[in-house]
Amino acid sequence: MIAVDDLTHRFGDAVALDGVSLTIPDGEFCLLVGPNGSGKTTLVRHFNALLEPGSGTVTVDGTDVTVDPLAARTSIGMVFQQPRDQLVAATVGADVAFGPENLGLDRGEIDRRVASALDAVDLGGREDDHVDALSGGEQARVAIAGALAMEPTHLVLDEPFAGLDLRARRSLLSRLDSLHEAGTSIVVVTHDLRDLRERADRVVALADGRVVADGSPADLGDLEPHGVDGGC
Ligand SMILES: Nc1ncnc2c1ncn2[C@@H]1O[C@H](COP(=O)(O)OP(=O)(O)OP(=O)(O)O)[C@@H](O)[C@H]1O
């Protein structure tokens, strides 16, 4: 479970998060929506202790993320909007294997995870490709595969479909379905609700650093006329 309690974050004088409280239970498929600058990315960066709270706390499975950031980063797989920044190795296979190798898994298990994660993003068999020779969309898919290969209990994807072609999009949606079915909690930060609305258990909307709506996707019909940018 990811639990955010009264979280506030400032960048200088600007308040990016203003008293956000939110609990994401295990196994939930949650969409995080809201206009540009509403605080979505700032919020999810706190899940992995990549930012220091001004006030408030974030706990993952009961542990404060600032006390044990490594535990949070192992439990929560995260893919950000600038995926190239997340790639650490020269080739696709080495990059996706990097996280599982750090978990100390044996070679057979690492190879299985890499192959499975690359299949999920429609890059099966591309282990030897150089990451710098890939398109931006392909690099985004490698970053997603890297998070999938960690087999985290929670997966957070920030605008994962930006730059993905239809085939890769379908492939990733299908993997999200199987992960959700297997009990992984999934948080998708998105402006693009296509194909996601019907999959989600819940939609949380932020505006000006606050939670302004929190409910089932069916409630979205009520949200959109009030200007919460769901991107439909
Ligand atoms: N590193 C930073 N330094 C200064 N201000 C920042 C920084 N990162 C974010 N902000 C500000 O914090 C606020 C929230 O930004 P954030 O990126 O979390 O919003 P967002 O909802 O993810 O936006 P988008 O949909 O455009 O990605 C914005 O006003 C933004 O300008």
Let me know the CATH homologous superfamily.
P-loop containing nucleotide triphosphate hydrolases
Structural class: alpha/beta
Task: Sketch the topology as an H/E string, one letter per element.
Answer: EEEHEEHEHHHEHEEEH
Reported for the largest beta sheet, the result is: 6 strands, mixed
* Oligomeric form: single chain
**Helical content (DSSP H or I, runs of 4+):** 25-40%
Structure description:
Strands 6-7-8-3-9-10 form a 6-stranded mixed β-sheet, with helices on both faces. The protein is an alpha/beta fold and 232 residues long. Helix 3 crosses helix 4 (107-120), helix 3 runs parallel beside helix 5 and helix 4 (107-120) crosses helix 5. The chain starts with a strand and ends in a 9-residue tail after the last helix. 32% of the residues lie in helices and 26% in strands. It has helices spanning 40-47, 69-75, 92-102, 107-120, 136-149, 166-181, 220-223, and strands at 2-11, 14-24, 29-33, 55-60, 63-64, 76-79, 154-158, 185-189, 202-207, 210-215. The protein has a single domain (2-216), classed as P-loop containing nucleotide triphosphate hydrolases (Rossmann fold). The model is unreliable at 225-232 (pLDDT under 50). The chain has 7 helices and 10 strands. The radius of gyration is 17 Å and the shape is globular. 42% of the residues are buried. The chain binds adenosine-5'-triphosphate (ATP). Adenosine-5'-triphosphate is lined by residues 11, 14, 16, 34, 36-42.
